[in-house]
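Reviewers of the previous submission asked for a worked example of the structure-prediction workflow described in the proposal, so we include one complete record here. The input consisted solely of the amino acid sequence. No template or homolog information was supplied to the procedure at any stage.
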Amino acid sequence: MTFYNEMIKGLWKENPIFRLVLGMCPTLAVTTSVENSLGMGFAASFVLICSNIVIALLRNLIPSKVRIPCFIVIIATFVTIVDMLMNAFAHELHNNLGLFIPLIVVNCIILGRAEAFASKNPVMLSIADGIGMGIGFTLGLTVLGLCREILGAGSITLFQQAGLKWEIGWLADKTMILMILAPGGFIALGCLLGFMNHIQSLIARAKGKAFTPPQHLDCRHCTICKWGE
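From that input alone, the workflow returned the following C-alpha cells.
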C-alpha cells in the first residue's frame, strides 16, 4: 500500500460516483451546471481531506463505541468552515448549492472513508485516500454536470460571477430542458454508469478476465450501518 496507489484508486477503480455509486443525493441535485458541480466537488474534497487527517491523528484516542458521533463532529467542523468561506467569497454559488453544503456532514463518501480508512490507517495514507476520493468525486460531478448543462441549457458555466460562461450557439434551439430537471439527472447518470461499465468490461476482456463490479465496496456493505453490533 503506497501513497500513489491510494491516491489514484478514487479516480477510476473506486470512483465514488461511477464505481461505488455513493453520494447520489448531491450528485443528482447539484449537477445542473459545471459551476455547481465544481463547487460541490471542491467543498466535499476539502472536508474529506481535512477530516481524514484529523481522524487519522486521533484514531487511537477515540473510543470505538462513540467513534461515529466523534467523526460527525469533526466533519461538521470543516463543513462549517467551508460554508462560511463559500458564503463570503462565492455568495451566488453558495446560494445555488443551498442546503447541500450543510448536508456534506452526512455525505456517505466522507463518513464512509472516515470509518473504513482514516480510522484504521496513518495520516499520510489517509491524506492520499482523501485526495484521490475527492478528485474522483469532483471529476464525476463535473462530467455529469457538463453533460446535463450542455444538453439542457446549451452552455458551459465555470464561474458566472467572473463572467466565465459560454453559450453554445448551435445548440440554442436544440436543448432539452429535461436534462436540467430531476429526471434528466437519473437519465444522464444511468447512461454514464453504463458507459463506465462497458469500458471496464472491454479492459477486463482484453486481459482475458471476466468483469464483475466491486460488490464489496458499495453502500450495502458499509460497516457504518453495523457499528452498533
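The radius of gyration is 18 Å. We consider this example representative of the routine output the project will generate in years two and three.
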